[in-house]
């Protein structure tokens, strides 16, 4: 078992500014751990990217899975405070991360076109109104508010996945049942020829969380 990254360096005051790891975070960790041998031995990644890294827990865990330190681990977040914490989390756990403050992947394309071997996204997925999504000035709310069907940020990211993934690349996406995951799978298949499976699902209180795994139909 791969240990969860040590987050003792993050204070309660820090969590006023950055999303605290919760059940959704740990479900994504479990999915990556389940695929650990596949990622190490078949994907053998050169470049990994996490969109919306928050504390950096997921990318740090991925770095521990890969182990040899040869993969570039890029993390993006719109919240500069989150990127500072992400950097500290990597250092605290002896994993080198490369945090970038940007919205989704603005500025990374076309340079990273079809270059990402492992892509992870735990998006803002909670069902809210569009007004809640765009009018909120609270940075923590922006980490979870997803707009109509919880899909407004997710739907902006889906076309970017096709541009980012390498031929051997895999994409791990966390959704809840209200996000209509089967519809997301159909969009990715019909529009981008990306195959998928539900890698994990779990109840967190009344919320059903799922990890979808996507890959190109070239293997």
Automatic annotation (TrEMBL):
| Methyltransferase small domain segment(s) | 47-143
Q: Which GO terms describe its cellular component?
A: eRF1 methyltransferase complex; nucleus
Record GO terms (molecular function): protein methyltransferase activity; S-adenosylmethionine-dependent methyltransferase activity
Instruction: Specify whether Nucleus is a keyword of the entry.
Output: yes
Instruction: State where it is primarily located.
Output: nucleus
Keywords assigned: Methyltransferase, Nucleus, S-adenosyl-L-methionine, Transferase
Give GO BP annotations, semicolon-separated.
methylation
The record's comment on protein family reads: Belongs to the eukaryotic/archaeal PrmC-related family.
Report the protein name in the record: Methyltransferase N6AMT1-like
Report the source organism: Rhizophagus clarus
Q: Taxonomic lineage of this organism? A: Eukaryota, Fungi, Fungi incertae sedis, Mucoromycota, Glomeromycotina
């Amino acid at each position: 078992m791969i240990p969860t990254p040590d987050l003792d360096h993050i204070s309660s005051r820090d969590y006023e500014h950055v999303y605290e790891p919760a059940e959704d975070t740990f479900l994504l960790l479990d999915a990556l751990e389940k695929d650990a041998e596949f990622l190490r031995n078949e994907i053998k990644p050169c470049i990994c990217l996490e969109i919306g890294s928050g504390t950096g827990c997921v990318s740090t865990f991925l770095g521990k899975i890969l182990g040899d330190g040869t993969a570039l681990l890029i993390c993006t977040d719109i919240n500069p405070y989150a990127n500072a914490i992400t950097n500290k989390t990597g250092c605290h756990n002896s994993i080198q991360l490369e945090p970038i403050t940007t919205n989704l992947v603005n500025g990374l394309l076309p340079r990273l076109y079809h270059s990402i071997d492992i892509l992870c996204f735990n998006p803002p997925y909670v069902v809210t109104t569009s007004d809640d999504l765009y009018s909120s000035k609270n940075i923590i709310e922006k980490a979870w508010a997803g707009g109509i069907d919880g899909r407004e940020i997710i739907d902006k990211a889906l076309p970017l996945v096709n541009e980012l993934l390498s031929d051997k690349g895999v994409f791990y996406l966390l959704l809840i049942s209200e996000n209509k995951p089967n519809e997301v799978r159909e969009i990715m298949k019909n529009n981008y020829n990306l195959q998928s499976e539900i890698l994990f699902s779990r109840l967190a209180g009344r919320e059903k969380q799922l990890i979808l795994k996507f890959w190109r139909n070239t293997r």
